[in-house]
Design a protein that fits this description.
- This protein is mostly helical.
- It has helices at about 5-30, 35-45, 45-80, 90-115, 125-155.
- Helix 1 runs antiparallel to helix 3, helix 3 runs antiparallel to helix 4 (about 90-115) and helix 4 packs antiparallel against helix 5.
- The radius of gyration is 18 Å and the shape is elongated.
Amino acid sequence: MSRIFSTITTLALSAVALYAARKSYIAITNLHRYEERSEKAAKHSETAARELYKTRATQGSSAAAIALSLISSFALCFRTLSGSASSSTAEYGVPALNIVAIAAAFVHNQNYWKAKPKIPFVGGINEGIEKSKEIRQSFVILGSAWLVFGVLHLIGG
């Protein structure tokens, strides 16, 4: 595959990963606004403690998958720009690893947040539900980008 094409595809992947990272950052900072109240409620309610844990876990798994994707895309981009020889592990294993991580985070996020109903006049919860939906949408875009990258490298050799 040509160096120019590889550079363009890895830069596109990096841009998509940055977009997903931005969505995740916004969701996490929005949830932090309710952190103190949530922790107080968790001290008095086992249900609140469980919900706080699950909220943190879904945001953490989302952030980890996005971070992996971001690091991978930057590493592949720098490898391409430096003119390093292509590696089948980098070109096939890295996309596969990222697709698996993104899919796992998507399922984890969806299993928790999709079941949450929006509640009238409770902006914080509704905002969390909406931001998590946006993160799942960015996972679809990011996973698709990794799939396209892997297929293009498979076809292009």
